[in-house]
Amino acid sequence: MTADTLVPPRTPQGKASVRRKGPNLEQWGWVFMRVSGVLLIVLIFGHLFVNLMVGEGISALDFAFVAGKFSTPFWQVWDVLMLWLAFIHGTNGMRTIVNDYVTNAKVRRVLVTSLWVVAGFMIILGTLVVFTFDPCIPNLSNGSVVAEVCRAQG
Hints:
Function: Membrane-anchoring subunit of succinate dehydrogenase (SDH).
Oligomer: single chain
CATH architecture: Up-down Bundle
Radius of gyration: 23 Å
Keywords: Cell inner membrane, Cell membrane, Electron transport, Heme, Iron, Membrane, Metal-binding, Transmembrane, Transmembrane helix, Transport, Tricarboxylic acid cycle
Strand content: under 5%
GO molecular function, one term: heme binding
Number of helices: 5
CATH topology: 3 helical TM bundles of succinate and fumarate reductases
Pathway: Carbohydrate metabolism; tricarboxylic acid cycle
Organism: Microbacterium oleivorans
Number of domains: 1
């Protein structure tokens, strides 16, 4: 290519023009975003339907409702799957934005690493909350259904 030849926009230059061996992580990221997006739609609308429309609707949402949901393994897995997919999907989207707009390689690396560290911490914390949730820990002496159940178990 001569010096007076115009290169089409967005043509990879330098290291970016050479395809590295190994898995194409950008392609797998693209596929993940589409699959997780569809799964998230199903999970979120199922979550909203059960929480807001089934039974007494939104007026039934209280501590006892959440305690009842988290005592069932099905809803624990449902909510953890929704949590994991939402955080990974969102972090991957933010990673794509950072890769598109941050030109300094060191700054980009710091931002992407911090995104994944924060997402990993929040995923671990959220998973622990869902699987270790115990409705009998708070001091429930107000005559609620949860207080009666906790007294019956203890």
